Amino acid sequence: MDSKMKKRIHAAGVIMVTLLLGVPAVFFAYLFGMFGMFPLYVTKTIPVFGGAVMVSLILVFSGYLGKTGKKRVGLCFLAVLIGCGAFIGAGMHRESISQIDDRDFMLYQYEPFADNTKAVYLDEESTLSFKEDQLIRLDGATALYPVYAGFVQSVYPEGEYRMYDGYSDDGFGLVTCSNTVYAYERLINGDTDIIFVAGPSEAQKKMAEDAGMQLHMTPIGREAFVFFVNKLNPVDDLTIEEVQGIYSGAITNWKKVGGKNQNIRAFQRDENSGSQTGLQKLMGDIEIMEPKKEDRIEGMGGIIREVAAYRNYKNALGFSYRYYATQMDTDESLKLLALNGVEPTKETIRDGSYPVSSNFYAITASPVGEPAPQETNDNIKEFLDWILSEQGQKIIEETGYVSLY
């Protein structure tokens, strides 16, 4: 057997052994990563790095390369290794940046009557008390769950009111929190009686109209729509016109509004969420720019974590409602911005001097042409009247929102 044939046999053996051992190893490592055993940024490098290892082994040990060729293979492998390391390093840095993600907030901490619940208790006997056969189905926005959990603790009989009930027909409990988008859908579909939310978007109004339903809105408290940046951002104040310029795409650099020479990364929320509706109302007739996919934050669903969460980048601009940003997802690295020179405090929200303050509501629905449920159901009427009473407003205030008076 001549030397060429020996090299070919040797090369074939190296290739077979490398592929037999390497391909399954890369496949299973990648598979484990997809199931969450490794971070996504590590999972993405596995095929690249594993492929580079296999190709390098085949070329180096095949017997066909001289010293120069082996050095070149080694340099190429080193370049791949550095590239993978840089990608992983960037991913680790990204993970270290604080984030706001309403899915991370443990609403269960506010479940009514639960041990060590954070929901507000009245320090006196409630003037309204329901029995088991009088209970009303409740739903609402994420940020308002602590408020109506406090209502339940005051008015409902003591018991277990789970946010999600896997044994019910639709999976939701008597007192649940499906978020703004789904709360409106459930109310319009007749799956709940009262929802606690910000005012409806145009799409939600259209949804009710198409279903032949009308919404009955009872203002129960006040809240501010706020914008926030990283505390290292020197900008402390924006005008309404500047915010509109940023979210229309006309202003793209912080230098234009008194900051550093950095591109503005303006995050948005998913359509019909309470906060995105707030932005749309602020923008009025000005068209909102279409964000990059990674800059639109989906609050619900199986969205990849790296995309779904608002990352507190130094050049980022985010928005929410004051209570959520300051009470439910506190982050010391965030800074709330003043608008038109007015900071969002309870006093400026109550007197209306903060320019983007508005009511939030307890909303019911009825078929068009028929009376509101509070006109035909004594329990709903008494409950809404109680929320507007001194005791109901006290719970709103002590939870951290702003009462009507």
List how many beta strands DSSP finds: 13
Count of individual helical segments: 14
Poorly predicted segments: 101-105, 299-309
Strand content: 5-15%
- Report how far apart the termini are: 99 Å
Over the alpha carbons, how many angstroms does the gyration radius reach? 28 Å
Report mean pLDDT, rounded to a whole number. Answer: 82
* Main sheet specs: 7 strands, mixed
Supply the helix-strand structural class. alpha/beta
Global shape: elongated
Secondary structure: helix percent = 40-55%
Task: Explain what you see.
- The protein is an alpha/beta fold.
- It is 42% helix and 15% strand.
- It is built from 14 helices and 13 strands.
- It has helices spanning 3-34, 40-61, 67-96, 145-155, 180-188, 202-210, 240-248, 274-283, 305-308, 322-328, 346-350, 373-376, 378-387, 390-399; strands spanning 99-100, 138-140, 194-197, 213-230, 237-238, 265-266, 268-269, 296-297, 310-311, 316-321, 334-336, 338-339, 357-367.
- The strands form four sheets. Strands 2, 3, 4, 6, 10, 11 and 13 form a seven-stranded mixed β-sheet that branches. A two-stranded antiparallel sheet has the order 1-9.
- Helix 2 (40-61) runs antiparallel to helix 3.
- The protein is elongated, with a radius of gyration of 28 Å.
- It starts with a helix and ends in a 6-residue tail after the last helix.
- Residues 101-105 and 299-309 have low confidence and may be disordered.
